[in-house]
Write a structure and sequence with these properties.
Helix content is 0%, strand content 51%. With 111 residues, the chain is mainly β. The protein is globular and about 40 Å long.
């Protein structure tokens, strides 16, 4: 059964860092681009960052550019989102997408 499982979310103070992971199984992860999205309470799900299937191309939403880094390890079937300089506005449920959707992981930035 194909699935994506996110992990690494939690509560962090403003200015802190977290690294989210997205573990893929049951399909050929390396064949697909991977994206991270986030959804804050009461708002639509929005694009955060994307990476090509080989990892050679990355794109970022303006709101996270320079603070977040997306990467992937196709040998391990895992994608990552390194988040530095976190702000309260980054609070959301973060979802990974690579053909399928994960269940999401909560990130809360608060003092």
């Amino acid at each position: 059964q194909a699935q994506l499982v996110e992990s690494g979310g939690g509560l962090v103070q403003p200015g802190g860092s977290l690294r989210l992971s997205c573990a893929a199984s049951g399909f050929t992860f390396s064949a697909y681009a991977m994206n991270w999205y986030r959804q804050a309470p009461g708002l639509a799900r929005v694009f955060v960052a994307g990476i090509s299937s080989t990892g050679g191309t990355t794109t970022y939403a303006n709101s996270v550019k320079g603070r977040f880094t997306i990467s992937r390890d196709n040998a391990k079937n895992v994608g990552y989102l390194q988040m530095n300089g976190l702000k309260p506005d980054d609070t959301a449920v973060y979802y990974c997408n690579a053909r399928y959707w994960g269940q999401g992981t909560q990130v809360t930035v608060s003092s």
